[in-house]
Amino acid sequence: MVARSKFYEVSDVNVHELLLDSFNPRIRHGIDQHDCTERIVKDRDTFMSLLRDIATNGLSPEHILIAQNADGKWVVRDGNRRVTALKLLTRSELCLPNEQLYSIVQRITKEIPVKVSETINCLACDDEPTILDYLKRKHTGENAGVGQVSWSALLIALFNAHVGVTDQNRRAAQLILWAEEHGLSVPNDFPITTLTRALNSDSLKLLGFEIVNDQLVAILS
Fold first, then answer.
1. How far is residue 42's CA from residue 49's CA, in Å, rounded to a whole number?
2. Staple partner for 79: which of 16, 64, 105, 134, CB 3.0–4.6 Å?
3. Residues 6+ apart with CB under 8 A from 55
């Protein structure tokens, strides 16, 4: 059971003093820290996307979870990819002997306007069962609503419509938002992609709408 009182904040932790977790499922029995890094970066495309995002936008507000090992050193229990990205962004020589990765990271660090900080704030816990329960809840699916519940296609489309991002379900999302504003309740698992396939300018006119400045406007009472 996750006991929230067992977690505490640790401020200004130097990322180069953090050990990657050699038993993390992404790493699996890393021989040493260099090997752990190699195992993290082997998924090149997804890792480089994360590294570029951190370089450009900074670290996400989501906690990095750490715990002390038997030697009193901090080990990353959740957030190994993010910590690896920070390590490479602040000390690109850690990429070596991978010359290709080294060149890419150096180019990224030269392009970013603000130097990436070597210190971060972390969440820590000293109780192993609590840590394992936290990791299970976070990474093993929705778990009947106890874990993180992913957004459906409808919820993603509604979010994009709200923030002004265009996607293939935009018209359907606009129509659903209009309907809900007028008292029609739409369930979260509504098949929005099916509605998208049925919508075009002609069918929207039959429903009583036209598109003005990329918005649906009712043309019937």
1. 13
2. 64
3. 89, 108, 109, 111, 112, 116
Q: pTM here?
A: 0.81
What pLDDT, in 10s, does the model give residues 79-108?
Answer: 999 999 999 999 999 998 989 999 999 999
**131: exposed, middle or buried (Cβ count in 10 Å: 0-12, 13-18, 19+):** buried
Closest CA to 64 of 136, 3, 10, 133: 10
Burial zone of 35 (CB within 10 Å; 0-12 exposed, 13-18 middle, 19+ buried) = middle
Residue with tokens 């075009």: 200
Summarize the confidence of residues 59-77 as an average pLDDT: 96
Q: Report the interhelical angle of 80-90 vs 99-111 (nearest 10°).
A: 80
Cβ contacts of residue 183 below 8 Å, gap of 6+? Answer: none
Question: Running DSSP on this structure, what letter comes out for residue 94?
Answer: G
